UniProtKB/TrEMBL annotation:
GO terms for cellular component: 6-phosphofructokinase complex. One of its GO terms (biological process) is canonical glycolysis. Mg(2+) binds at N103. Its EC number is 2.7.1.11. This is ATP-dependent 6-phosphofructokinase. It comes from Ilumatobacter fluminis. One of its GO terms (molecular function) is AMP binding.
Amino acid sequence: MRVGVLTGGGDCPGLNAVLRAIARKGERVFGDELVGFVDAWDGVMERRTTPLTIETMRGSLPRGGTVLGTRRGSPFDHPDGVDRVKTAMAELGLEALIVIGGNGSLSVACKLYNEHGIPVVGVPKTIDNDIEGTDVTFGFNTAVQIATDAIDRLHTTAESHDRVMVVEVMGRHSGWIATTAGIAGGATAVLIPEHPFDIDEVCERIIRRHNRGRFASIIVVAEGATPKEGTFDVGEREIDRFGHVRLGGIGNLLASEIGLRTGFETRPVLLGHVQRGGTPTAYDRVLSTRFGVAAIDAVHRGAFGTMVALHGAEIGETPLVDVIGRTRPVDPALYTDVAEIFFA
């Protein structure tokens, strides 16, 4: 078979490991010819391709980012976008398309399959771990490890100067990174989008620690966290060209407010895209490899309109229609029953 592959949305540690696995099993076991599209859906519409082979992917397992390049956007953003995708696949002789991406890319894939009959298989990708239908997404483990390492380092400087450190991590709609790294790093408090926070309660926790002789505090906040209505004004947020609220900066606002209300020296630390970059952890390399193998297997079984997924210890599939338009929130038991026990 000739199979097209693209990576869409934000970059993520483990993408190259997925591509490598698809090429390895596709070429060696099935005798496939894999065609990589450069720069996501733009590459499909403009027919910008590169060979995806065992040889071209050699040495890519520990490499972050994606050798195919990635960007946001959709063929549905263009009046003739879908026709261009169909024409490209026909002229290139492609019998299937593997789409590696997050909620946006998988929504496009689902629509192309359901409404236009394009044979697609999805692979879930996001450091936020917020895709429904899979227990874990690759890239998440790496992002948590990076955030935890940063928190570990901040503890020592915070303790040396009796400072409060506000660490902002990624997480637009879900606080998986913040919650998990907060537990692993021994944070004083974790603020996530699923639970609007009360700035007074946060400051009270910090003051209680100070009164007990624990002068250093680490507050971990997801970029999408918001205060309870009427407790703290964060101002208007910009909207980007894709219609998303432009996030980033809650850490700065929170640090300033904590400093004013408590009188303690408070510093913001924004990890930003450091969480996306660099080499993936061993866990993410293995999960990415398993997803890549499962994706090319799904193509050859004709399991189109599905997404490969981790269910317990096994790799399976989830219909894309059950995934799109939904965001997987943090497990309430993890946040309330585990994490909050240690926040004091």
